[in-house]
Amino acid sequence: MREEATAFVPGHVTGFFSAHPDDDPTKAGSRGAGLTLTDGVEVTVEPAAERTVVLDGEPIAIDPVVDVLEALEAPARVEAVSELPLGAGFGVSGAMALGTAFAANRVFERHRSRNELVAIAHAAEVRAGTGLGDVVAQAQGGIPIRLEPGGPAVNELDAVPARSRVEYVPFGELSTADVLAGETAQLSRAGEAALSRIVEEPTLEAFMDASERFARDAELLTPPLEAAIEDVTAVDGQASMAMLGETVFALGTGLSDAGYEPSVCTTHPAGAVLK
Amino acid sequence: MREEATAFVPGHVTGFFSAHPDDDPTKAGSRGAGLTLTDGVEVTVEPAAERTVVLDGEPIAIDPVVDVLEALEAPARVEAVSELPLGAGFGVSGAMALGTAFAANRVFERHRSRNELVAIAHAAEVRAGTGLGDVVAQAQGGIPIRLEPGGPAVNELDAVPARSRVEYVPFGELSTADVLAGETAQLSRAGEAALSRIVEEPTLEAFMDASERFARDAELLTPPLEAAIEDVTAVDGQASMAMLGETVFALGTGLSDAGYEPSVCTTHPAGAVLK
Q: What residue range is the signal peptide (chains A, B) (predicted)?
Protein backbone atom coordinates (compact mmCIF):
# COMPACT_ATOMS: atom_id res chain seq x y z
CA MET A 1 0.00 0.00 0.00
CA ARG A 2 1.28 3.46 -0.89
CA GLU A 3 1.08 6.46 1.43
CA GLU A 4 -0.98 8.54 -0.98
CA ALA A 5 -1.68 9.21 -4.62
CA THR A 6 -3.01 12.25 -6.49
CA ALA A 7 -4.97 12.46 -9.71
CA PHE A 8 -5.91 15.50 -11.79
CA VAL A 9 -9.24 15.46 -13.58
CA PRO A 10 -10.19 18.21 -16.05
CA GLY A 11 -13.46 20.09 -15.62
CA HIS A 12 -16.17 19.44 -18.22
CA VAL A 13 -18.96 21.65 -19.51
CA THR A 14 -21.61 19.82 -21.46
CA GLY A 15 -23.04 21.92 -24.29
CA PHE A 16 -25.99 19.65 -25.07
CA PHE A 17 -27.17 16.18 -24.17
CA SER A 18 -29.97 13.64 -24.25
CA ALA A 19 -30.69 11.45 -21.22
CA HIS A 20 -30.64 7.64 -21.59
CA PRO A 21 -31.71 5.93 -18.38
CA ASP A 22 -31.11 2.22 -17.80
CA ASP A 23 -31.54 -0.04 -14.78
CA ASP A 24 -27.85 -0.91 -15.10
CA PRO A 25 -25.89 2.23 -14.11
CA THR A 26 -22.91 1.16 -16.24
CA LYS A 27 -25.24 1.27 -19.28
CA ALA A 28 -27.22 4.40 -18.38
CA GLY A 29 -25.82 7.74 -19.45
CA SER A 30 -26.16 10.49 -22.01
CA ARG A 31 -25.37 11.33 -25.59
CA GLY A 32 -24.01 14.82 -26.20
CA ALA A 33 -20.87 16.89 -26.46
CA GLY A 34 -18.81 19.20 -24.29
CA LEU A 35 -15.47 20.81 -23.56
CA THR A 36 -12.98 19.44 -21.04
CA LEU A 37 -11.11 22.24 -19.30
CA THR A 38 -7.58 22.85 -18.02
CA ASP A 39 -9.33 24.14 -14.90
CA GLY A 40 -10.17 21.01 -12.95
CA VAL A 41 -9.94 19.10 -9.71
CA GLU A 42 -6.94 17.58 -7.97
CA VAL A 43 -7.86 14.60 -5.83
CA THR A 44 -5.56 13.07 -3.23
CA VAL A 45 -6.34 9.75 -1.57
CA GLU A 46 -4.62 8.44 1.53
CA PRO A 47 -5.48 5.42 3.66
CA ALA A 48 -7.47 6.32 6.79
CA ALA A 49 -9.42 4.47 9.46
CA GLU A 50 -12.48 6.59 8.71
CA ARG A 51 -13.84 7.60 5.30
CA THR A 52 -13.66 11.39 4.93
CA VAL A 53 -14.19 13.60 1.92
CA VAL A 54 -12.87 17.15 1.92
CA LEU A 55 -13.36 19.74 -0.82
CA ASP A 56 -11.26 22.90 -0.67
CA GLY A 57 -10.62 22.36 3.03
CA GLU A 58 -14.25 21.70 4.04
CA PRO A 59 -15.71 18.26 4.86
CA ILE A 60 -18.45 17.50 2.36
CA ALA A 61 -20.87 14.68 1.50
CA ILE A 62 -20.39 13.61 -2.12
CA ASP A 63 -22.21 10.31 -2.64
CA PRO A 64 -20.36 9.21 -5.80
CA VAL A 65 -17.01 9.52 -4.02
CA VAL A 66 -18.13 7.30 -1.16
CA ASP A 67 -19.58 4.85 -3.68
CA VAL A 68 -16.23 4.66 -5.52
CA LEU A 69 -14.32 4.08 -2.27
CA GLU A 70 -16.71 1.26 -1.42
CA ALA A 71 -16.41 -0.33 -4.86
CA LEU A 72 -12.62 -0.36 -4.50
CA GLU A 73 -12.74 -1.44 -0.83
CA ALA A 74 -10.68 1.61 0.00
CA PRO A 75 -10.93 3.03 3.52
CA ALA A 76 -9.47 6.44 2.82
CA ARG A 77 -9.44 10.16 3.29
CA VAL A 78 -10.14 12.00 0.03
CA GLU A 79 -8.92 15.56 -0.26
CA ALA A 80 -9.99 17.49 -3.34
CA VAL A 81 -8.87 20.93 -4.44
CA SER A 82 -11.02 22.43 -7.18
CA GLU A 83 -10.44 25.37 -9.49
CA LEU A 84 -14.14 25.20 -10.34
CA PRO A 85 -17.29 25.74 -8.27
CA LEU A 86 -19.50 22.77 -7.35
CA GLY A 87 -23.05 22.66 -8.71
CA ALA A 88 -22.36 25.12 -11.53
CA GLY A 89 -22.11 22.67 -14.44
CA PHE A 90 -18.38 21.89 -14.47
CA GLY A 91 -18.55 18.20 -13.59
CA VAL A 92 -16.86 18.68 -10.22
CA SER A 93 -18.63 15.69 -8.65
CA GLY A 94 -17.69 13.55 -11.66
CA ALA A 95 -14.10 14.75 -11.38
CA MET A 96 -14.04 13.88 -7.69
CA ALA A 97 -15.44 10.40 -8.36
CA LEU A 98 -13.03 9.71 -11.22
CA GLY A 99 -10.00 11.18 -9.43
CA THR A 100 -10.85 9.10 -6.37
CA ALA A 101 -11.02 5.96 -8.51
CA PHE A 102 -7.61 6.57 -10.14
CA ALA A 103 -5.88 7.57 -6.90
CA ALA A 104 -7.46 4.86 -4.71
CA ASN A 105 -6.61 2.18 -7.28
CA ARG A 106 -2.99 3.25 -7.00
CA VAL A 107 -2.82 3.65 -3.24
CA PHE A 108 -4.53 0.35 -2.49
CA GLU A 109 -2.96 -1.45 -5.49
CA ARG A 110 -6.34 -2.68 -6.72
CA HIS A 111 -5.00 -3.50 -10.22
CA ARG A 112 -8.05 -2.21 -12.10
CA SER A 113 -7.66 -1.07 -15.69
CA ARG A 114 -8.46 2.45 -16.83
CA ASN A 115 -11.82 1.34 -18.28
CA GLU A 116 -12.76 -0.45 -15.06
CA LEU A 117 -12.03 2.69 -13.02
CA VAL A 118 -14.02 4.87 -15.42
CA ALA A 119 -16.93 2.40 -15.24
CA ILE A 120 -16.90 2.48 -11.43
CA ALA A 121 -16.90 6.29 -11.30
CA HIS A 122 -19.51 6.59 -14.07
CA ALA A 123 -21.87 4.15 -12.34
CA ALA A 124 -21.41 6.02 -9.03
CA GLU A 125 -22.38 9.31 -10.70
CA VAL A 126 -25.42 7.78 -12.38
CA ARG A 127 -26.60 6.14 -9.15
CA ALA A 128 -26.28 9.46 -7.29
CA GLY A 129 -28.09 11.32 -10.08
CA THR A 130 -25.31 13.93 -10.16
CA GLY A 131 -24.28 13.36 -13.79
CA LEU A 132 -24.77 11.18 -16.85
CA GLY A 133 -21.82 11.90 -19.13
CA ASP A 134 -19.17 13.96 -17.35
CA VAL A 135 -17.06 11.02 -16.17
CA VAL A 136 -16.53 9.36 -19.56
CA ALA A 137 -15.79 12.77 -21.10
CA GLN A 138 -13.35 13.66 -18.32
CA ALA A 139 -11.58 10.33 -18.80
CA GLN A 140 -11.02 11.11 -22.48
CA GLY A 141 -10.14 14.82 -22.41
CA GLY A 142 -10.26 17.17 -25.41
CA ILE A 143 -13.69 17.99 -26.83
CA PRO A 144 -15.59 14.71 -26.46
CA ILE A 145 -18.62 13.75 -28.51
CA ARG A 146 -20.66 11.08 -26.73
CA LEU A 147 -22.24 9.13 -29.59
CA GLU A 148 -23.58 6.31 -27.44
CA PRO A 149 -24.37 6.49 -23.71
CA GLY A 150 -22.93 4.51 -20.83
CA GLY A 151 -19.62 3.44 -19.38
CA PRO A 152 -16.58 2.32 -21.42
CA ALA A 153 -17.86 -1.21 -22.09
CA VAL A 154 -20.90 -0.01 -24.03
CA ASN A 155 -20.45 3.63 -25.03
CA GLU A 156 -19.06 5.12 -28.19
CA LEU A 157 -16.98 8.28 -28.14
CA ASP A 158 -15.61 10.57 -30.79
CA ALA A 159 -14.20 14.10 -30.50
CA VAL A 160 -13.86 17.46 -32.20
CA PRO A 161 -10.19 17.60 -33.25
CA ALA A 162 -9.51 21.13 -32.04
CA ARG A 163 -8.51 23.16 -29.04
CA SER A 164 -9.55 26.59 -27.83
CA ARG A 165 -9.33 29.22 -25.17
CA VAL A 166 -12.47 29.08 -23.02
CA GLU A 167 -14.01 31.81 -20.87
CA TYR A 168 -16.73 31.28 -18.30
CA VAL A 169 -18.81 33.10 -15.68
CA PRO A 170 -20.78 31.14 -13.06
CA PHE A 171 -23.91 33.02 -11.94
CA GLY A 172 -25.23 30.40 -9.57
CA GLU A 173 -26.08 26.78 -8.92
CA LEU A 174 -28.53 24.44 -10.56
CA SER A 175 -29.25 20.92 -9.32
CA THR A 176 -28.45 18.32 -11.97
CA ALA A 177 -30.42 15.77 -9.94
CA ASP A 178 -33.53 18.01 -9.97
CA VAL A 179 -33.43 18.64 -13.72
CA LEU A 180 -32.78 14.98 -14.51
CA ALA A 181 -35.60 13.90 -12.19
CA GLY A 182 -38.03 16.13 -14.10
CA GLU A 183 -39.53 15.78 -17.59
CA THR A 184 -36.61 15.20 -19.95
CA ALA A 185 -38.41 14.28 -23.20
CA GLN A 186 -38.25 17.75 -24.80
CA LEU A 187 -34.68 18.20 -23.62
CA SER A 188 -33.63 14.86 -25.07
CA ARG A 189 -35.27 15.61 -28.43
CA ALA A 190 -33.33 18.86 -28.59
CA GLY A 191 -30.16 16.99 -27.56
CA GLU A 192 -30.51 14.44 -30.35
CA ALA A 193 -30.97 17.23 -32.90
CA ALA A 194 -27.83 18.96 -31.62
CA LEU A 195 -25.87 15.71 -31.81
CA SER A 196 -26.85 15.19 -35.46
CA ARG A 197 -25.57 18.68 -36.17
CA ILE A 198 -22.13 18.08 -34.67
CA VAL A 199 -21.74 14.61 -36.18
CA GLU A 200 -22.28 16.23 -39.56
CA GLU A 201 -19.81 19.01 -38.82
CA PRO A 202 -17.45 18.24 -35.92
CA THR A 203 -16.08 21.74 -35.44
CA LEU A 204 -15.97 24.14 -32.49
CA GLU A 205 -18.24 26.60 -34.29
CA ALA A 206 -20.90 23.94 -34.89
CA PHE A 207 -20.56 22.79 -31.27
CA MET A 208 -21.24 26.28 -29.92
CA ASP A 209 -24.07 26.84 -32.35
CA ALA A 210 -25.72 23.52 -31.47
CA SER A 211 -25.20 24.18 -27.75
CA GLU A 212 -26.88 27.58 -27.87
CA ARG A 213 -29.85 26.23 -29.80
CA PHE A 214 -30.13 23.34 -27.33
CA ALA A 215 -30.15 25.66 -24.31
CA ARG A 216 -33.03 27.61 -25.86
CA ASP A 217 -35.01 24.56 -27.02
CA ALA A 218 -34.59 22.82 -23.67
CA GLU A 219 -35.90 25.99 -21.94
CA LEU A 220 -33.16 25.95 -19.34
CA LEU A 221 -31.90 29.53 -19.76
CA THR A 222 -32.30 31.90 -16.82
CA PRO A 223 -32.42 35.70 -17.40
CA PRO A 224 -28.72 36.30 -16.53
CA LEU A 225 -27.68 33.50 -18.91
CA GLU A 226 -29.92 34.79 -21.66
CA ALA A 227 -28.48 38.29 -21.26
CA ALA A 228 -24.88 37.07 -21.28
CA ILE A 229 -25.37 34.98 -24.41
CA GLU A 230 -26.95 37.97 -26.16
CA ASP A 231 -24.09 40.22 -25.05
CA VAL A 232 -21.49 37.82 -26.48
CA THR A 233 -23.45 37.39 -29.71
CA ALA A 234 -23.61 41.18 -30.04
CA VAL A 235 -19.79 41.31 -30.21
CA ASP A 236 -19.70 38.47 -32.78
CA GLY A 237 -18.79 35.81 -30.23
CA GLN A 238 -20.34 32.44 -29.45
CA ALA A 239 -21.59 31.55 -25.96
CA SER A 240 -23.86 29.03 -24.33
CA MET A 241 -24.84 27.52 -21.01
CA ALA A 242 -22.99 24.81 -19.09
CA MET A 243 -25.29 21.80 -18.62
CA LEU A 244 -26.29 21.77 -15.81
CA GLY A 245 -25.40 24.94 -13.97
CA GLU A 246 -26.22 28.62 -14.12
CA THR A 247 -22.95 29.22 -15.97
CA VAL A 248 -22.23 30.87 -19.29
CA PHE A 249 -19.18 29.82 -21.33
CA ALA A 250 -17.69 31.22 -24.52
CA LEU A 251 -14.86 30.43 -26.90
CA GLY A 252 -11.89 32.74 -27.33
CA THR A 253 -12.45 36.18 -25.82
CA GLY A 254 -16.23 36.23 -26.23
CA LEU A 255 -17.11 37.16 -22.66
CA SER A 256 -14.22 39.62 -22.17
CA ASP A 257 -15.14 41.35 -25.43
CA ALA A 258 -18.68 41.70 -24.11
CA GLY A 259 -17.45 43.44 -20.95
CA TYR A 260 -17.57 40.54 -18.51
CA GLU A 261 -14.72 39.52 -16.22
CA PRO A 262 -14.63 35.81 -16.90
CA SER A 263 -12.39 33.05 -15.62
CA VAL A 264 -10.11 31.90 -18.42
CA CYS A 265 -8.73 28.47 -19.30
CA THR A 266 -8.37 26.29 -22.39
CA THR A 267 -9.67 22.93 -23.51
CA HIS A 268 -7.65 20.15 -21.87
CA PRO A 269 -5.71 17.88 -24.21
CA ALA A 270 -5.71 14.85 -21.88
CA GLY A 271 -8.16 12.93 -19.77
CA ALA A 272 -7.79 12.17 -16.06
CA VAL A 273 -4.19 11.43 -15.05
CA LEU A 274 -2.28 10.31 -12.02
CA LYS A 275 0.26 12.90 -10.97
CA MET B 1 -8.06 27.77 -45.69
CA ARG B 2 -5.53 28.47 -42.95
CA GLU B 3 -1.87 29.23 -43.59
CA GLU B 4 -0.61 26.28 -41.58
CA ALA B 5 -1.35 24.05 -38.61
CA THR B 6 0.87 22.00 -36.32
CA ALA B 7 0.11 18.82 -34.40
CA PHE B 8 2.16 17.00 -31.78
CA VAL B 9 1.99 13.22 -31.69
CA PRO B 10 3.64 11.23 -28.89
CA GLY B 11 6.06 8.44 -29.72
CA HIS B 12 4.92 4.89 -28.98
CA VAL B 13 6.87 1.77 -28.10
CA THR B 14 4.91 -1.45 -28.40
CA GLY B 15 5.90 -4.00 -25.77
CA PHE B 16 4.06 -6.94 -27.32
CA PHE B 17 1.51 -7.56 -30.03
CA SER B 18 -0.32 -10.05 -32.19
CA ALA B 19 -0.96 -9.31 -35.88
CA HIS B 20 -4.53 -9.36 -37.23
CA PRO B 21 -4.59 -8.89 -41.00
CA ASP B 22 -7.80 -8.02 -42.83
CA ASP B 23 -8.54 -7.04 -46.43
CA ASP B 24 -10.10 -3.85 -45.09
CA PRO B 25 -7.22 -1.71 -43.71
CA THR B 26 -9.57 0.06 -41.28
CA LYS B 27 -10.28 -3.37 -39.72
CA ALA B 28 -6.76 -4.82 -39.86
CA GLY B 29 -4.42 -4.09 -36.98
CA SER B 30 -2.92 -5.58 -33.85
CA ARG B 31 -3.73 -6.46 -30.30
CA GLY B 32 -1.09 -5.57 -27.72
CA ALA B 33 0.13 -2.89 -25.35
CA GLY B 34 2.72 -0.14 -25.26
CA LEU B 35 3.88 3.15 -23.80
CA THR B 36 3.22 6.52 -25.45
CA LEU B 37 6.11 8.91 -24.88
CA THR B 38 6.56 12.63 -24.23
CA ASP B 39 9.28 12.40 -26.89
CA GLY B 40 7.39 12.55 -30.15
CA VAL B 41 6.93 14.21 -33.50
CA GLU B 42 5.74 17.69 -34.36
CA VAL B 43 4.09 17.86 -37.76
CA THR B 44 3.35 21.11 -39.61
CA VAL B 45 1.17 21.17 -42.70
CA GLU B 46 0.94 24.11 -45.09
CA PRO B 47 -0.78 24.31 -48.48
CA ALA B 48 1.64 23.88 -51.39
CA ALA B 49 1.39 23.33 -55.14
CA GLU B 50 3.53 20.21 -54.83
CA ARG B 51 3.31 17.47 -52.18
CA THR B 52 6.55 17.41 -50.17
CA VAL B 53 7.40 15.56 -46.97
CA VAL B 54 10.36 16.69 -44.90
CA LEU B 55 11.67 14.99 -41.76
CA ASP B 56 14.21 16.87 -39.66
CA GLY B 57 15.10 19.07 -42.61
CA GLU B 58 15.55 16.28 -45.18
CA PRO B 59 13.04 15.40 -47.92
CA ILE B 60 11.82 11.84 -47.32
CA ALA B 61 9.36 9.37 -48.84
CA ILE B 62 6.86 8.23 -46.20
CA ASP B 63 4.00 6.43 -47.94
CA PRO B 64 1.42 6.73 -45.14
CA VAL B 65 1.82 10.51 -45.10
CA VAL B 66 1.19 10.80 -48.83
CA ASP B 67 -1.77 8.45 -48.44
CA VAL B 68 -3.28 10.68 -45.70
CA LEU B 69 -2.81 13.81 -47.81
CA GLU B 70 -4.59 12.09 -50.69
CA ALA B 71 -7.46 10.90 -48.48
CA LEU B 72 -8.00 14.46 -47.26
CA GLU B 73 -7.49 15.98 -50.73
CA ALA B 74 -4.77 18.13 -49.25
CA PRO B 75 -2.04 19.40 -51.58
CA ALA B 76 0.51 20.35 -48.95
CA ARG B 77 4.05 20.51 -47.69
CA VAL B 78 4.49 18.42 -44.53
CA GLU B 79 7.36 19.32 -42.26
CA ALA B 80 8.06 16.98 -39.35
CA VAL B 81 10.51 17.43 -36.51
CA SER B 82 11.13 14.27 -34.53
CA GLU B 83 12.75 13.74 -31.15
CA LEU B 84 12.90 10.03 -32.01
CA PRO B 85 14.77 8.08 -34.72
CA LEU B 86 12.84 6.57 -37.64
CA GLY B 87 12.81 2.78 -38.00
CA ALA B 88 13.78 2.12 -34.39
CA GLY B 89 10.37 1.11 -33.00
CA PHE B 90 9.01 4.48 -31.83
CA GLY B 91 6.07 4.77 -34.21
CA VAL B 92 7.56 7.76 -36.04
CA SER B 93 5.81 6.92 -39.32
CA GLY B 94 2.50 6.50 -37.45
CA ALA B 95 3.07 9.82 -35.71
CA MET B 96 3.76 11.51 -39.04
CA ALA B 97 0.61 10.02 -40.59
CA LEU B 98 -1.58 10.97 -37.63
CA GLY B 99 -0.06 14.43 -37.21
CA THR B 100 -0.55 15.06 -40.92
CA ALA B 101 -4.20 14.02 -40.64
CA PHE B 102 -4.90 16.36 -37.70
CA ALA B 103 -3.01 19.32 -39.17
CA ALA B 104 -4.28 18.90 -42.75
CA ASN B 105 -7.88 18.61 -41.50
CA ARG B 106 -7.44 21.96 -39.81
CA VAL B 107 -5.59 23.75 -42.61
CA PHE B 108 -7.97 22.60 -45.34
CA GLU B 109 -11.05 22.74 -43.07
CA ARG B 110 -12.06 19.19 -43.96
CA HIS B 111 -14.45 18.89 -40.97
CA ARG B 112 -13.51 15.32 -40.11
CA SER B 113 -14.00 14.07 -36.56
CA ARG B 114 -11.14 12.76 -34.45
CA ASN B 115 -12.15 9.13 -35.11
CA GLU B 116 -12.30 9.74 -38.85
CA LEU B 117 -8.79 11.22 -38.83
CA VAL B 118 -7.44 8.33 -36.75
CA ALA B 119 -9.08 5.84 -39.14
CA ILE B 120 -7.49 7.54 -42.16
CA ALA B 121 -4.01 7.51 -40.58
CA HIS B 122 -4.40 3.95 -39.28
CA ALA B 123 -5.49 2.63 -42.69
CA ALA B 124 -2.58 4.44 -44.34
CA GLU B 125 -0.08 2.77 -41.96
CA VAL B 126 -1.62 -0.65 -42.49
CA ARG B 127 -1.59 -0.26 -46.29
CA ALA B 128 2.08 0.76 -46.20
CA GLY B 129 2.95 -2.12 -43.84
CA THR B 130 4.78 0.29 -41.54
CA GLY B 131 2.63 -0.36 -38.47
CA LEU B 132 -0.47 -2.07 -37.13
CA GLY B 133 -1.25 -0.45 -33.82
CA ASP B 134 0.85 2.67 -33.28
CA VAL B 135 -1.68 5.14 -34.68
CA VAL B 136 -4.63 4.17 -32.45
CA ALA B 137 -2.30 4.10 -29.43
CA GLN B 138 -0.82 7.51 -30.31
CA ALA B 139 -4.32 8.94 -30.66
CA GLN B 140 -5.18 7.82 -27.13
CA GLY B 141 -1.97 8.58 -25.22
CA GLY B 142 -1.04 7.11 -21.83
CA ILE B 143 -0.28 3.39 -21.71
CA PRO B 144 -2.75 1.90 -24.19
CA ILE B 145 -3.91 -1.70 -24.17
CA ARG B 146 -5.24 -2.71 -27.59
CA LEU B 147 -7.87 -5.34 -26.78
CA GLU B 148 -9.31 -5.56 -30.28
CA PRO B 149 -7.51 -4.63 -33.51
CA GLY B 150 -8.38 -2.05 -36.12
CA GLY B 151 -9.35 1.59 -36.41
CA PRO B 152 -11.69 3.46 -34.06
CA ALA B 153 -14.92 2.10 -35.57
CA VAL B 154 -14.09 -1.51 -34.70
CA ASN B 155 -11.29 -1.62 -32.14
CA GLU B 156 -11.45 -1.79 -28.37
CA LEU B 157 -8.96 0.05 -26.19
CA ASP B 158 -8.20 0.07 -22.51
CA ALA B 159 -5.17 1.41 -20.64
CA VAL B 160 -2.88 0.89 -17.68
CA PRO B 161 -3.81 3.73 -15.28
CA ALA B 162 -0.26 4.80 -14.45
CA ARG B 163 2.59 6.97 -15.60
CA SER B 164 6.33 6.49 -15.48
CA ARG B 165 9.73 7.81 -16.39
CA VAL B 166 11.00 5.92 -19.45
CA GLU B 167 14.60 5.43 -20.59
CA TYR B 168 15.63 4.11 -23.98
CA VAL B 169 18.66 3.35 -26.13
CA PRO B 170 18.29 2.76 -29.90
CA PHE B 171 20.99 0.39 -31.22
CA GLY B 172 19.81 0.30 -34.80
CA GLU B 173 16.98 -0.11 -37.25
CA LEU B 174 14.64 -2.99 -37.93
CA SER B 175 12.11 -3.02 -40.74
CA THR B 176 8.56 -3.41 -39.42
CA ALA B 177 7.43 -4.24 -42.95
CA ASP B 178 9.98 -7.09 -43.21
CA VAL B 179 9.02 -8.66 -39.88
CA LEU B 180 5.28 -8.35 -40.58
CA ALA B 181 5.75 -9.84 -44.06
CA GLY B 182 7.41 -12.93 -42.53
CA GLU B 183 5.94 -15.78 -40.48
CA THR B 184 3.96 -14.16 -37.64
CA ALA B 185 2.14 -17.18 -36.14
CA GLN B 186 4.59 -17.82 -33.28
CA LEU B 187 4.86 -14.10 -32.61
CA SER B 188 1.09 -13.72 -32.47
CA ARG B 189 0.68 -16.68 -30.10
CA ALA B 190 3.22 -15.07 -27.76
CA GLY B 191 1.40 -11.75 -28.15
CA GLU B 192 -1.95 -13.22 -27.16
CA ALA B 193 -0.39 -14.79 -24.06
CA ALA B 194 1.14 -11.45 -23.08
CA LEU B 195 -2.21 -9.70 -23.55
CA SER B 196 -3.96 -12.16 -21.23
CA ARG B 197 -1.34 -11.41 -18.63
CA ILE B 198 -1.87 -7.63 -18.73
CA VAL B 199 -5.66 -7.88 -18.86
CA GLU B 200 -5.47 -9.86 -15.66
CA GLU B 201 -3.10 -7.37 -14.04
CA PRO B 202 -3.05 -3.98 -15.79
CA THR B 203 0.06 -2.60 -14.08
CA LEU B 204 3.37 -1.28 -15.36
CA GLU B 205 5.27 -4.14 -13.75
CA ALA B 206 3.11 -6.75 -15.49
CA PHE B 207 3.46 -4.83 -18.77
CA MET B 208 7.26 -4.94 -18.60
CA ASP B 209 7.27 -8.56 -17.53
CA ALA B 210 4.93 -9.60 -20.36
CA SER B 211 6.93 -7.52 -22.86
CA GLU B 212 10.24 -9.14 -21.96
CA ARG B 213 8.77 -12.62 -22.18
CA PHE B 214 7.19 -11.72 -25.54
CA ALA B 215 10.51 -10.48 -26.96
CA ARG B 216 12.13 -13.80 -26.02
CA ASP B 217 9.27 -16.01 -27.22
CA ALA B 218 8.99 -14.12 -30.51
CA GLU B 219 12.74 -14.60 -31.04
CA LEU B 220 13.28 -10.99 -32.04
CA LEU B 221 16.12 -10.13 -29.64
CA THR B 222 19.50 -9.25 -31.15
CA PRO B 223 22.70 -9.71 -29.07
CA PRO B 224 22.94 -6.00 -28.02
CA LEU B 225 19.29 -6.05 -26.91
CA GLU B 226 19.74 -9.31 -25.02
CA ALA B 227 22.81 -7.90 -23.23
CA ALA B 228 21.07 -4.63 -22.31
CA ILE B 229 18.01 -6.40 -20.91
CA GLU B 230 20.27 -8.64 -18.82
CA ASP B 231 22.24 -5.63 -17.57
CA VAL B 232 19.07 -3.87 -16.45
CA THR B 233 17.71 -7.03 -14.82
CA ALA B 234 21.02 -7.39 -12.95
CA VAL B 235 20.41 -4.03 -11.22
CA ASP B 236 16.80 -5.01 -10.37
CA GLY B 237 15.27 -3.04 -13.23
CA GLN B 238 12.83 -4.04 -15.95
CA ALA B 239 13.65 -3.61 -19.63
CA SER B 240 12.42 -4.89 -22.95
CA MET B 241 12.58 -4.30 -26.70
CA ALA B 242 10.58 -1.74 -28.68
CA MET B 243 8.46 -3.55 -31.29
CA LEU B 244 9.74 -3.22 -33.97
CA GLY B 245 13.17 -1.68 -33.72
CA GLU B 246 16.57 -2.56 -32.30
CA THR B 247 15.80 -0.43 -29.26
CA VAL B 248 15.83 -1.26 -25.56
CA PHE B 249 13.52 0.61 -23.17
CA ALA B 250 13.23 0.53 -19.38
CA LEU B 251 11.07 2.06 -16.67
CA GLY B 252 12.47 4.50 -14.11
CA THR B 253 16.27 4.58 -14.06
CA GLY B 254 16.80 1.00 -15.24
CA LEU B 255 19.23 1.76 -18.05
CA SER B 256 21.12 4.53 -16.21
CA ASP B 257 21.53 2.23 -13.21
CA ALA B 258 22.99 -0.40 -15.53
CA GLY B 259 25.60 2.07 -16.81
CA TYR B 260 24.01 3.07 -20.11
CA GLU B 261 23.51 6.67 -21.25
CA PRO B 262 19.87 6.52 -22.30
CA SER B 263 17.52 9.15 -23.64
CA VAL B 264 14.97 10.00 -20.95
CA CYS B 265 11.30 10.93 -21.20
CA THR B 266 8.03 9.94 -19.52
CA THR B 267 4.80 8.35 -20.61
CA HIS B 268 2.60 10.95 -22.33
CA PRO B 269 -0.73 11.71 -20.66
CA ALA B 270 -2.51 12.78 -23.86
CA GLY B 271 -2.96 11.54 -27.39
CA ALA B 272 -2.22 13.51 -30.55
CA VAL B 273 -3.11 17.21 -30.23
CA LEU B 274 -3.23 20.28 -32.40
CA LYS B 275 -0.93 22.96 -31.11
A: none
